[in-house]
Amino acid sequence: MRIFIIEDDIKLSHYLHKGLNQEGHSVELCHDGKTGLIQASTENFDAIILDRMLPGMDGLKLLRSLRGMEISTPVLMLSNLGDVDHRVEGLRSGCDDYLSKPFSFTELLARVEVISRRQPQSNTYETLIVSDLELNLLTRKAQRRGRSIELLTQEFKLLEYLMRHEGQIITKTMLLEQVWDLHFDPKTNVVEVHVSRLRKKVDQSQDRPLIHTVRGAGYVLHEKN
Prior knowledge:
The structure is a single chain. The chain is of the alpha/beta class and 225 residues long. Helices cover 40% and strands 21% of the residues. It has 8 helices and 11 strands. The protein has helices at residues 10-22, 33-42, 59-68, 84-92, 105-118, 153-164, 172-178, 190-203; strands spanning 2-6, 26-30, 47-51, 75-79, 97-100, 127-130, 133-136, 141-144, 147-149, 211-214, 218-221. It has a 5-stranded parallel beta sheet, sandwiched between helices. The chain has a 4-stranded antiparallel beta sheet with strand order 6-7-8-9, covered by helices on one side. Strand 6 and strand 7 form a beta hairpin. Helix 2 (33-42) runs parallel beside helix 3 (59-68) and helix 6 (153-164) crosses helix 8 (190-203). The radius of gyration is 19 Å and the shape is elongated. The model has no long low-confidence stretch (mean pLDDT 88).
């Protein structure tokens, strides 16, 4: 699944990111309500983990805004406020489930899996497409103009992240955090090596390359005019 975590507790959000990533899910992080609302309303997620108390915009207001825009992405709300009245308020605001802090990761994982199953499964986003490049998220296979591209695990994660952010400049730090789950710079060229290998596989013998280096900034995947 593609899961969006909106949580201002940095330590907790990174803990959840690591655990969900290890379970095979693709995870995005956000630490404030206003940014979270924009991202949750403009991108496609299978589930949202939403903290109730957030800077910028509290979780209840964010949730009501999403439901007001008819965005039905399943939401698991997290909160230190765990009495009955608070849980009822969260559920009436549109969350699919409510989990009080502290909690165990295994319970959170089970609850996320349950609320995601309530949504009708759509295959609209099973395949990412940029220009003539296709990436099937279920089979983990890529192809370009009918040519199959064999991807290693990290290459798949890297390509998926670049394709989901088509046209955006992606920094080395972003790739270390989102693809390798490293929240520090290991002072190695691991990103450069993998991007180079991926570029050879994707752009091999193609007259229009898709993966570009933006000097001093990072990388971007798009088709130049």
